[in-house]
Every structure is written in structure tokens, then in C-alpha cells.
């Protein structure tokens, strides 16, 4: 619970700061007076006024806001004087820049972080298509998958790694999907039927890949490292037993804690041999471990390619969220299966934090893109609602009255509060079930 709380404070803090900073900088650029820059919603806790702006931290930590002079927003301030520094006194194009700046900053954050991750981490390829486990929480059993199946094509598209399998499955959701697989030397076809999509967890395959017996990262000062095993080595025999995959290898290792065993492996066409002693784990039921991880391919990418991947990853998330919203609106999928609230986000942030900074920053980038998408929807009280007013004003060449804006803002706030209560209810329901 502690790490989840810290992680969600970090993630929300970054997202809110970046979003509101976009509005703030754009307002300053366009000559609009900013009265308050708040992280969190009122009541105000503490802060400092510098010039015309009160920089503060507020009590309700589910967002933030920039209060601009002469703008009818969630503060319901209707005190418009017509002064040049007021938001309402600026041309429509300037107000559009100010309103959309927060969303643009969130998209920019997502693209920047994902580009950096691509450049520093490279493209991670999981070169396996054989199924090692079929779970019960998704749709895989209903489709007919079995352990040992090797997926060859999805709707006619050849898949050569696990990333391709996930990508093609997601791209074809809410459609009939044909899986061509190899099972015990025979090619067969399995089908996902479109009508299943409404079922719970039907957007989730719940299958795991079976790694080969090839070595990935080798942990220092562990038996494998001391025996001379390196990244890319392929284990062929261990403790006088043949090894063909990761499951067979780990079963042997776990059953020989503190035993001396012989290991044979292949490296660039050569066969090597060593003797090692699996380290026994702590606890009552001791199992052996040698300090190796499954093999993954990491492809280094150039900076331009990393930026391209960052943009592509961001817009892939955008398209997926657009699909999700469409599925909800058309009844293809119930909202309770797709919408997550602050408790679910906190749980996911905590899991990302436990996995390391790379995962936490990647999670933050993804959430930033999602926040940008939902904020630009034409819902009153969100940036998209304000943008809708401005587009109407630009088309009709006539400003919408303050009274109408105020009523719409009140309706919008009621809708948002209802939505917040609903998603929190869904989160609690998931925790209890």
C-alpha cells in the first residue's frame, strides 16, 4: 500500500504539473493574467504569491487548475471587466492555444518519455510464439488454446514474436479472429468469435509464452556467472537430463538446491561444459536457483527511430482509447469492464514502481496520453468543453453568453462528479469481488 501511495503521488504530481504548466505558459505568452496555479483542488492548503499569481498546493489531490482572469471555468467566477489581460478579451485563436496547451503538453510528455525509453532501452523483442501456460481469467480457453501450441498467423498475418501476437490480437478486437497454430506437428485453426467480445475479460487472452532454454541476463556473483554462462548461451543438458525449453531447465535447477550438477550449453556453434552448484533459497521449502533470466532480444535504435517509435506508441494508445470509448458508446463492451479509477491506477502505479523506474516512467507516459485524450473530449468543465465553446464562437462570430457558460459548467461539474463517484465504485467493487 505504501509504495502504491508514493507511486500515485509521483505519477499524478507529474501529470498535473505538466498539464497545468501548459495552460500557464500559454496564458502568459498570450498576455493573460494568471491568478492561481494550483496542484490539487480547493480548499487551498499553502502556497506563495509571486506577482499576480498564487502558486499553491490544495487539499483534493485528483487534479489541478490554472485560474485565469476573465475566464468562466470550474471556479464559476463571472467577474468580467473587459480588461486587456483577461482571457475573454483575447481573440479566439489565442484562447484556443491556451485551452489546448495542457493537452498538448501531456501528449508531448508521453512522446518524450516513450522516445527516451526507446532510445535508452532499445526495442525489446520476445522471440517466442509457443504457449507455455493458458490462464482462466481471459478468453484463451474458450478459443481452445492449449499449452504447447505455437501461434503462426493471426487473421493471415504472420507473427514471429510475442509482441506481434499481442499487437495483432488487440488490433482485431471486436472482429472475428482466426488463429493458425501448430499443435503436435499438425496445423489447425482456432477462432475467436466477434459475439464473444461482450463477455467479461474477452479483450484479454491470458496466455503466457514458453521461453526457450536460451540465457538472457546473467546475475553477477550467482552460480551461472561463476560457471561462465553468458547472454545468448543455449542450455542443451543439465544434471544429465536433456533440456529443450525454459520450463524443463528451471524444473531441474529447482530440484537440485546445493547439489553439484553438470551443465552443457551451445555458444556460437561450440559446445561448452561446466559444473555448478545451484544456490538454495531461503525458507522451509528450499529450491535451487542459479541467477539467470529468459532470453530477450534488445535492438538498439537511432535517435530519429526512437522518436518515431515514441510518437507511434503514443498514437497507438490514443487509437486504443478511441476504440474503447466507441465500444462503450455502441454497447459492444460494458463500461465497467473498460473504465478504471484512482484505486486501480494506484494499484497499477505501485506495480510499475516495484518493477523499476523504466516501468514507472513508461506507465506515466501512457497515462499522460490517456489523460490528454479524455481531457479534449467535448465534455463541459474539461478542456474539450471550453474548446467547443470557442469553436462555436469562431463559427458564429458571436460569443456565448456568460449565463449559458455558467449553466453548462455547472452541468459539466455535476457530470464529472457523478463519473468520479462511479469509477471509484467500480474500483471498490473490483477489490471486493
What topology emerges from the helices and strands here?
Blueprint lengths: L1 H28 L4 E17 L2 E16 L23 H30 L1 E3 L5 E4 L5 H4 L6 E5 L2 E2 L3 H10 L5 E7 L2 E7 L14 E3 L5 E4 L4 H5 L6 E5 L2 E2 L3 H9 L6 E7 L2 E7 L2 E2 L7 E2 L2 E3 L2 E3 L3 H28 L4 H4 L3 H14 L1 H19 L7 H14 L5 H31 L1
Annotation keywords:
433 residues; alpha+beta; Pdz3 Domain; 4-stranded antiparallel beta sheet; 18 strands; elongated
Describe the structure concisely for a colleague.
It contains 12 helices and 18 strands. Strands 6-5-7-8 form a 4-stranded antiparallel beta sheet, covered by helices on one side. Strands 12-11-13-14 form a 4-stranded antiparallel beta sheet. A two-stranded antiparallel sheet has the order 1-2.
Write structural notes for this entry.
This protein is α+β, with helices and mostly antiparallel strands and 433 residues long. It has three domains: 186 residues, no CATH class; 94 residues, Roll (Pdz3 Domain), CATH 2.30.42.10; 76 residues, PDZ domain (Pdz3 Domain, Roll), CATH 2.30.42.10. It contains twelve helices and 18 strands. The strands form seven sheets. A four-stranded antiparallel sheet has the order 6-5-7-8, covered by helices on one side. The longest helix has 31 residues. The radius of gyration is 27 Å and the shape is elongated. The two termini are 19 Å apart.
Amino acid at each position: 500500500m505504501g509504495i502504491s501511495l508514493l507511486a500515485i503521488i509521483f505519477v499524478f504530481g507529474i501529470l498535473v504539473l505538466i498539464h497545468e504548466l501548459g495552460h500557464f505558459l500559454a496564458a502568459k505568452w498570450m498576455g493573460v493574467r494568471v491568478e492561481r496555479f494550483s496542484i490539487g483542488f480547493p480548499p487551498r492548503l499553502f502556497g506563495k504569491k509571486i506577482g499576480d499569481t498564487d502558486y499553491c498546493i490544495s487539499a483534493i489531490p485528483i487534479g489541478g487548475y490554472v485560474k485565469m482572469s476573465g475566464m468562466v471555468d470550474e471556479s464559476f467566477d463571472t467577474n468580467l471587466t473587459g480588461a486587456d489581460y483577461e482571457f475573454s478579451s483575447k481573440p479566439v485563436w489565442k484562447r484556443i492555444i491556451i485551452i489546448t496547451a495542457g493537452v498538448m503538453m501531456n501528449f508531448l510528455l508521453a512522446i518524450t518519455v516513450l522516445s527516451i525509453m526507446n532510445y535508452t532501452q532499445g526495442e525489446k523483442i520476445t522471440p517466442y510464439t509457443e504457449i507455455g501456460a493458458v490462464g482462466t481469467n481471459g478468453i484463451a480457453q474458450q478459443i481452445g488454446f492449449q499449452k504447447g501450441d505455437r501461434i503462426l498467423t493471426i487473421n493471415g498475418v504472420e507473427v514471429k514474436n510475442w509482441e506481434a501476437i499481442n499487437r495483432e490480437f488487440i488490433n482485431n478486437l471486436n472482429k472475428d479472429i482466426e488463429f493458425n497454430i501448430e499443435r503436435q506437428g499438425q496445423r489447425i485453426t482456432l477462432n475467436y468469435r466477434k459475439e464473444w467480445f461482450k463477455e467479461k475479460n474477452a479483450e484479454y487472452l491470458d496466455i503466457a509464452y514458453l521461453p526457450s532454454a536460451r540465457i538472457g541476463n546473467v546475475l553477477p556473483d550467482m552460480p551461472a556467472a561463476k560457471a561462465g554462462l553468458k547472454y545468448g548461451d543455449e542450455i542443451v543438458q543439465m544434471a544429465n537430463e536433456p533440456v529443450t525449453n525454459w520450463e524443463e531447465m528451471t524444473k531441474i535447477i529447482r530440484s537440485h538446491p546445493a547439489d553439484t550438477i553438470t551443465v552443457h550449453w551451445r555458444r556460437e556453434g561450440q559446445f561448452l561444459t561446466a559444473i555448478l552448484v545451484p544456490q538454495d533459497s531461503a525458507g522451509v521449502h528450499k529450491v535451487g536457483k542459479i541467477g539467470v533470466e529468459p532470453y530477450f532480444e534488445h535492438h538498439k535504435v537511432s535517435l530519429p527511430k526512437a522518436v518515431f517509435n515514441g510518437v507511434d506508441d503514443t498514437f497507438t494508445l490514443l487509437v486504443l482509447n478511441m476504440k474503447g470509448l466507441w465500444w462503450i458508446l455502441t454497447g459492444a463492451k460494458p463500461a465497467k469492464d473498460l473504465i478504471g479509477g484512482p484505486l486501480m491506477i494506484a494499484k497499477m502505479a505501485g506495480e510499475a514502481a516495484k518493477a523499476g523506474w523504466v516501468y514507472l516512467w513508461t506507465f506515466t507516459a501512457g497515462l499522460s496520453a490517456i489523460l490528454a485524450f479524455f481531457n479534449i473530449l467535448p465534455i463541459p468543465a474539461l478542456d474539450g468543453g471550453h474548446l467547443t465553446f470557442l469553436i462555436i464562437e469562431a463559427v458564429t462570430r458571436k460569443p456565448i453568453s456568460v449565463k449559458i457558460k455558467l449553466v453548462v459548467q455547472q452541468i459539466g461539474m455535476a457530470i464529472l462528479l457523478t463519473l468520479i463517484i462511479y469509477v471509484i465504485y467500480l474500483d471498490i467493487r473490483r477489490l471486493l469481488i
